[in-house]
Amino acid sequence: MERKEITFTDNVDQTLKMMKDHGLLLTSVGADGRPNVMTIGWGNPGVIWSRPVFVVLVRPSRFTFQNIEATGEFVVSVPTDGMHDVCMYCGTESGRDTDKFAGGDLTVVEAETVRAPLIGQCVRHYECKVVHRNDVADAALSPEIRAEAYPQGDLHRIYYGQILRVTERA
Ligand SMILES: Cc1cc2nc3c(=O)[nH]c(=O)nc-3n(C[C@H](O)[C@H](O)[C@H](O)COP(=O)(O)O)c2cc1C
After folding, report:
1. Whole-angstrom Cα distance, residue 106 to residue 43?
2. Contact indicator for 129, 114 with CB cutoff of 8 Å
3. Which of 22, 67, 77, 150 could form a disulfide with 87 if both were Cys (CB 3.0 to 4.6 A apart)?
4. By three-state DSSP, how is residue 2 classified?
5. Which of 119, 44, 47 is nearest to 89 (CA)?
6. What is the pLDDT of residues 28-68, one digit of tens each?
7. The pTM is what?
8. In this model, does residue 81 exceed pLDDT 80?
9. Is residue 88 classed exposed, middle or buried when 0-12, 13-18 and 19+ CB atoms within 10 A define those classes?
10. Average pLDDT over residues 3-10
11. Protein residue with least CA distance to atom 10, ligand 1
């Protein structure tokens, strides 16, 4: 599938809509180079430190967490409307015990700037390098969100990924 490079503001409204409707697919690799993919429903493409940055929230219990800690890289890929079931699959199975690329019939495509792969079936890809990380601060969180999002703890680590390259289906 042909792809073209775009700027990160191009079609960002469609990226946000897909995140809300289905989730986005976040890929990573471990130190051994094995790729993994998980669904994210929370995230934020924007501008920080005069740079394009994709902010994502990953709980420490995710296998993906270990991968990002190991490599400091990830890719956010935007699925099509037809990929809803795949998003649910990648958001319920763990790469700890499953190869989700095989299970979800997803094609691994090499990225240009990071080791985490693109997904051939997706329409848009944000290649990101972690430039900052911090944990959701329990004491600073609104009690309403604390009760809603963290009844079991497992507070997210927030990764700020500088967007190095964005590509889209031509
Ligand atoms: C629609 C949807 C959105 C999700 N959003 C997030 C998210 O933003 N952050 C997160 O840590 N987990 C999120 N999850 C849960 C993970 O995708 C899920 O735990 C996944 O199995 C983790 O995979 P891994 O262990 O291979 O990393 C979401 C799940 C779904 C279905």
Report:
1. 22
2. yes
3. 22
4. coil
5. 119
6. 999 999 999 999 999 999 999 999 999 999 999 999 999 99
7. 0.98
8. yes
9. middle
10. 98
11. 58
Counting ligand 1 atoms within 8 A of each CB, the residue from 38, 90, 96 with the most, and so the one to mutate, is 38
CATH of the domain at 119: 2.30.110.10
Give the tokens for residue 136: 């959701």
What secondary structure letter does DSSP report for 9?
T
**Residue 1's pLDDT is what?**
74
Give the DSSP per-residue string, 30-94. -TT--EEEEEES-EEEEEETTEEEEEEEE-TTSHHHHHHHHHSEEEEEE--GGGHHHHHHHTTS-
Q: Let me know: does 82 contact 54? Beta carbons within 8 Å.
A: no
Determine whether the shortest distance from the Cβ of 150 to ligand 1 is under 6 A.
Answer: no
Q: Whose CA is nearest to atom 11 of ligand 1?
A: 58
Token reading at 1: 């599938």
Structural domain count of the chain: 1
